[in-house]
Amino acid sequence: MTTIYDFSVMKPDGTEESLADYRGKVMVIVNTASKCGFTKQFEELQSLYEEYKNQDFIILGFPSDNFNNQEFEDMEDTLAFCQRNYGVTFPMFQKTDVKGKEQHPLFAFLTSEQKGFLVEGIKWNFTKFLIDRQGRVVERFAPNTPPLKMKKSIEKLIQ
After folding, report:
1. Is residue 36 flagged as an active site residue?
2. Domains of the chain, with CATH numbers?
3. What pLDDT sits at residue 117?
4. How many Å apart are CA 136 and CA 109, to the nearest integer?
5. Which residues contact 74 (CB under 8 A, 6 or more apart)?
6. For residue 2, what pLDDT band results from cuts at 50, 70 and 90?
7. Where do runs of H (alpha helix) occur along 18-132?
8. For residue 120, what pLDDT band results from cuts at 50, 70 and 90?
């Protein structure tokens, strides 16, 4: 059975990281964008991370330019923006295609495991996937769902 631990992703410095490094943690995987109407969700995502990080919880952010070019060209600009404006300290990765011909295999897997409302693929920035400690995709949250609305689902998995 495939889990998210079977995938590797690229860190901002260009090195590869296996998601198996996060084995045993409850995770939220989210596609982000710095210039989106939902960008303010970084604040609530960071709040969730701060609240639960000592309980084996992690958020993994994947900047994406798939929706109206709402991400900076330079990765350093993205990281600086997220840190400066929202205090983001959870891991962020390289800009990643979350749909289309160049879709990263991780996002193909996530969307096949938890289909969205009306469509399987990702419709917009800040689609959030909740992953259990075994690396299974257990829930999907729409872009317009505020991250704090995920608290009950996160708490169930943390306990």
Report:
1. yes
2. 24-158 (3.40.30.10)
3. 54
4. 10
5. none
6. confident
7. 41-52, 75-86, 105-113
8. low
Q: What is the C-alpha separation between 133 and 125, in angstroms, rounded? A: 25
Give 129-142 pLDDT, tens digit per residue.
999 999 999 999 99
* Residues 56, 24 contacting (CB under 8 angstroms): yes
Q: Answer whether 0.90 is exceeded by the pTM.
A: yes
**Residue 27 contacts by C-beta under 8 Å, 6 or more apart in sequence?**
4, 57, 58, 59, 60, 130, 131
Instruction: Name the nearest CA neighbour of 21 among 33, 7, 34.
Output: 7
CA distance 146 to 77: 25
| Side-chain half-sphere CA neighbours of 55 within 13 A | 14
Q: What is the mean pLDDT of residues 65-77?
A: 81
| Amino acid letter, residue 149 | K
Angle at 124 between CA 145 and CA 150, to 5 degrees: 20
Q: Say which of 26, 27, 36, 157 is annotated catalytic.
A: 36
3-state secondary structure (DSSP) of residue 55: helix
What is the band of 154 on the pLDDT scale with cuts at 50, 70, 90?
very high
Residue 72 backbone dihedrals phi, psi, to 5 degrees: -65, 150
